[in-house]
Amino acid sequence: MTQPPGFVDLKHEDYVCRLHKSLYGLKQAPRAWNERFTTFLPSLGFKSTFADSSLFVKIVDTYVVILLLYVDDIIITGSHPQAITEVIQALTHEFDMKDLGPLHYFLGIQIVQNKNGLFLSQDKYVTDLLTKSDMLLSKPCATPCLPYNRLLSNDGKPFNNPTMYRSLVGALQYLTFTRPDIAFAVHQVCQFMQRPMDSHFMAVKRILRYLKATRGCGIQYIRGSLDLSAYSDADWAGDPNDRRSTTGMVVFLGSNPISWMSKKQQTVSRSSTEAEYRALSTTAAELDWLKSLLSFLQISLAEPPLLFCDNLSAIALTCNPIQHQRTKHIEVDVHFVRERVAKQQLHVQFVSSTEQFADILTKGLSAPLFQTHYANLRLNFSAPELEGG
């Protein structure tokens, strides 16, 4: 490597430094590699976007090539096979890379291409997690948490191994990338990382028992329309510890779920209308981001996104520009959903509570209702061949 500024030998300015440790083993290696790689991509015609700094797109005439970078793992796809091959050859010539062929395994996620589309799962990850927690032979259960039950911060005795608790919960967080059905249950146990109780660990074990029963579960993505729609829900004052509400939302591209969230709101809502209105604002922001991302991928929406909500009062707030006495305390930034509706960039529509897909992300449900929403999220079972490590 060249001599660093400030440490140049004046007698031998043309000398270089000899590394005693591989650059790949240094702490700053991933950042250095990412900077080197992203600096080279523009020379191949790729452009980055503010919507996602790890996503690069190359557009030439009628075809597009998309490259996704995560540290040193890369996915390349596009609409023209020859253009993809040329990009791979250029990258291989510049960097020491290996082409693993069609996508089967990426960052712990298994991808199976079948006649219906793509099937994404983390079956191997679940098996490794059950083995690590010694729950591989546990008794399975039908739901990841007790119906309509909330965890208390001081329920029972402190758990004697908080390190193991944090390790398991952290692993479960990564599993929610392909398992929206456990998002709410994982959201609950994540709140007690600092001081877990025995009851909290029992909740973690129930999630693992549910995973034992649904090891082969994943999301099936099929071909369809490119219309954006979303379901927004909130459980008003559902947390007994601080009385904050939980926002649940799921976004569909056509009939395929592409984004979901179960997250506690930052402030206490004074009514169910306010809680639902805040959830609408959060979901509208996610739709804005997805619209900009799709636009960068040269995908145009024929119609404005459709946002479903099961609270008529919250829907009325999105259409009514008058500041009522009961809503004047709500922060200004939450009202931006009203601006989107006024400009006809977003349509908000009522949906009955029985057809509210996001209900599974705000509370624990009974087994029959849980199975209904489980199917609504296009979760099903498959037996994909395990690949990778």
CATH architecture of the largest domain: 2-Layer Sandwich
Strand content: 15-25%
CATH topology category name of the largest domain: Nucleotidyltransferase, domain 5
Q: In whole angstroms, how far apart are the ends? A: 33 Å
CATH homologous group name of the largest domain = Ribonuclease H-like superfamily/Ribonuclease H
| Number of distinct helices | 10
Let me know the largest β-sheet.
5 strands, antiparallel
As for the number of domains, it is: 3
Query: What percentage of residues falls in helices of 4 or more residues?
Result: 25-40%
Given helix and strand content, the structural type is alpha+beta
Number of strands: 14
Shape label: globular
Major sheet strand order: 5-6-7-8-14
CATH class of the largest domain: Alpha Beta
How confident is the prediction overall: mean pLDDT? 85
Radius of gyration, whole Å: 24 Å
**Would you list the SSEs in sequence order as H and E?**
HEEEEHEEEHHHHEEEEHEHHEHE
List unreliable stretches of 5+ residues.
Answer: 383-389
Explain this structure.
By secondary structure, the chain is an alpha+beta fold. 32% of the residues lie in helices and 21% in strands. The protein has helices spanning 29-40, 81-94, 123-132, 162-175, 183-189, 198-213, 272-296, 312-319, 336-342, 367-376, and strands at residues 47-49, 52-60, 63-70, 73-78, 105-106, 109-114, 117-121, 217-222, 228-235, 246-253, 256-264, 306-309, 347-350, 379-381. Strands 5-6-7-8-14 form a 5-stranded antiparallel beta sheet. The protein has a 5-stranded mixed beta sheet with strand order 11-10-9-12-13. Helix 7 (272-296) crosses helix 8 (312-319). The two termini are 33 Å apart. Mean pLDDT is 85; it is low at 383-389.
